[in-house]
TrEMBL record:
It is a multi-pass membrane protein. It comes from Halomonas halmophila. It is found in: Cell membrane. This is Sulfatase N-terminal domain-containing protein. Gene3D superfamilies: Alkaline Phosphatase, subunit A. The lineage of its organism: Bacteria, Pseudomonadati, Pseudomonadota, Gammaproteobacteria, Oceanospirillales. GO terms for cellular component: plasma membrane.
Length: 551
């Protein structure tokens, strides 16, 4: 090792340029990740940093002795490391998602690959912190400005900015813009023969993949299904609806998922209930005599999924632990749980059971094949598409689209979809995947289509959000609801304008940062750090029974 070091130029044999190189590479990687530019940006950013260091002689010998002080910026740098890791993992960092998962429980999660990446990030932070400490201790100019730098790093970190902005809103105003537009979900009249309901959530399989110029034919199987039903083009994603639980709550409850608060009923246990203050699709259907089942390949304990469904009208909630013993090969799992071919085979069995009983039924299903960052395609897809390289998300998208298509065809062929509305939807837009640059190159929208129940096949261009799915599904099933509205959603089968059409998505997102009244409504009855139930102006079922206010 000594001989190798001896071959380097004299200027590179000391710690100065090694420390500067480490900091330059870290700055380049952070710039590329946060701005979502190509990772080749790392090269010019690092080069520019080293040129500045050379010109300004950062860390060079000076008459001032080295200091033993610890930089104030170490903690802000660690927080930035966390943010860069989240941006690298998910593409867009959603503070609400981070808080909710911490509150609802993150045990029994999958995605072991990201745990490994997190470990690499943690180990990488050590030389970064050591290099910065060396620079501050050996360059008096850096010591003089370092405290200001610490404040700047804290103020510029999007994670802390989001917390501060939300806290300022709570202190300064009683935000009720969204709550004033909330219409409590209510069925006024039911059809004589209510249809069954099958909801297929396709993990992260957004409609953006239907663009053949960017993604070739990977979406074609879903497009073929859509030709037989109603396809909605333009279902956008507002803030606090961009992860699985938030997406399901938006589409079933008509509201964004605002986390319960920094404090809740127990700091050592997950939330006991999930959005207990609002009625959702499951509550409404259970009141109409539906038997409801949820089935998902992942653990139902993760992120409060089981608690949500159990608390909103579902009699059977089946996750990885419930379904694994029923597999022919119980060891054939991915890091999250069941592969979709096994999940769909068990779904067929459950629908047969439900269909054999009197009364209407509803089954909600969540796939895994396209879960970021790479997807989990089963062997069934390898037989049709060839070997999976372990990274190409488009392979997984085509696989998931084909399996959903085949599942619907199989159920229809067995006569299990008579008098049944089939809903196919992505739970949310995809997070960072191998096709990230193509996905973010243009407008993005969620998958949402309706099949069956005598709907006239057509395509509808809308400006909507996943919150509009709840009233749309209710009306597609033949139910009559208040003013074509439920929650913050508007039926896309009606002529009523959606909130996005009236106010724009940027206005909705901006109001979400200020909203406190709807937040309290969601968690009414749950102790979230001092908020008592009577803090809510009115109770669900009684509140906002007038048309939403216009501006």
């Amino acid at each position: 090792m000594k001989r190798l070091l001896d071959t380097l130029p004299a200027t590179w044999q000391g710690p100065r340029w090694w420390a500067l190189l480490v900091l330059g590479l870290a700055l380049g990687h952070a710039t590329a990740t946060v701005t979502q530019l190509s990772h080749w940006v790392l090269v010019p950013v690092t080069a520019a940093w080293l040129m500045m260091a050379h010109t300004l002689r950062w860390g060079a010998r000076s008459p001032h002795p080295a200091s033993r002080t610890w930089p104030w910026s170490l903690l802000p740098l660690i927080l930035w490391g966390i943010y860069v890791y989240l941006a690298d993992s998910f593409g867009i960092v959603d503070l609400g998602a981070v808080l909710f998962h911490l509150q609802a429980g993150i045990s029994e999660h999958g995605g072991g690959e990201r745990i490994l990446v997190g470990l690499v990030y943690t180990l990488t932070m050590l030389p970064i912190l050591a290099s910065f400490t060396w620079l501050v201790r050996h360059d008096r100019r850096w010591r003089l400005v370092e405290r200001l730098l610490a404040l700047a790093l804290l103020a510029a970190n999007p994670l802390l900015y989001g917390i501060g902005q939300r806290g300022a809103a709570v202190v300064t105003e009683k935000g009720a813009w969204l709550d004033q537009r909330y219409v409590a979900p209510m069925i006024l009249e039911a059809p004589k023969a209510p249809p069954n309901l099958l909801v297929l959530y396709l993990e992260s399989l957004e409609r953006t993949y239907a663009d053949r110029q960017r993604f070739d034919d990977v979406y074609v199987p879903l497009g073929t299904l859509g030709d037989q039903g109603v396809v909605f083009e333009g279902v956008r994603q507002v803030d606090n609806t961009g992860w699985t639980m938030a997406g399901m709550i938006a589409s079933q409850c008509g509201v964004p998922l605002m986390p319960a608060g920094l404090l809740h009923d127990s700091q050592l246990e997950p939330l006991e209930r999930v959005v207990p203050g609002v009625n959702c699709l499951g509550d409404l259907l259970a009141d109409q005599g539906y038997e409801l089942t949820y089935m998902g390949g992942a653990s139902k304990a993760f992120a409060g999924k089981g608690r949500f469904y159990q608390g909103h009208g579902f009699s059977r909630v089946l996750g990885r632990d419930d379904l694994t013993p029923r597999l022919r090969s119980p060891q054939d799992l991915n890091s999250w749980g069941l592969f979709d071919d096994d999940l769909y085979a068990l779904t067929v069995e459950e629908i047969r059971r439900l269909d054999a009983q009197p009364g209407p039924w509803g089954l909600f299903n969540l796939s895994l094949a396209t879960h970021p960052p790479y997807g989990y395609p089963p062997d069934e897809c390898r037989e049709r598409q060839g070997e999976f390289d372990g990274a190409d998300i488009l392979y997984s998208v085509e696989c998931s689209a084909r399996m959903a298509h085949d599942l619907v065809k199989r159920l229809a062929g067995e006569g299990l979809l008579e008098n049944t509305l089939v809903v196919i939807a992505s739970d949310h837009l995809s997070m960072r995947v191998s096709a990230w640059e193509q996905l973010t190159a243009g407008p993005r929208s969620n998958t949402f289509m309706l099949l069956g129940n005598d709907l006239t096949p057509r395509r509808m261009k809308v400006e909507a959000s996943t919150m509009d799915i709840l009233p749309t599904v209710l009306e597609a099933m033949g139910f009559t609801i208040d003013w074509h509205r439920a929650g913050l959603g508007v039926s896309l089968l009606s002529e009523e304008p959606t909130l996005i059409e009236e106010h724009g998505i940027s206005t909705l997102n901006e109001q979400l940062k200020r909203e406190t009244a709807l937040h309290e409504r969601l968690w009414q009855g749950l102790d979230i750090g001092g908020m008592a139930p009577d803090d809510v102006s009115s109770t669900p079922g009684e509140a906002s029974l007038t048309p939403p206010k216009r501006e």
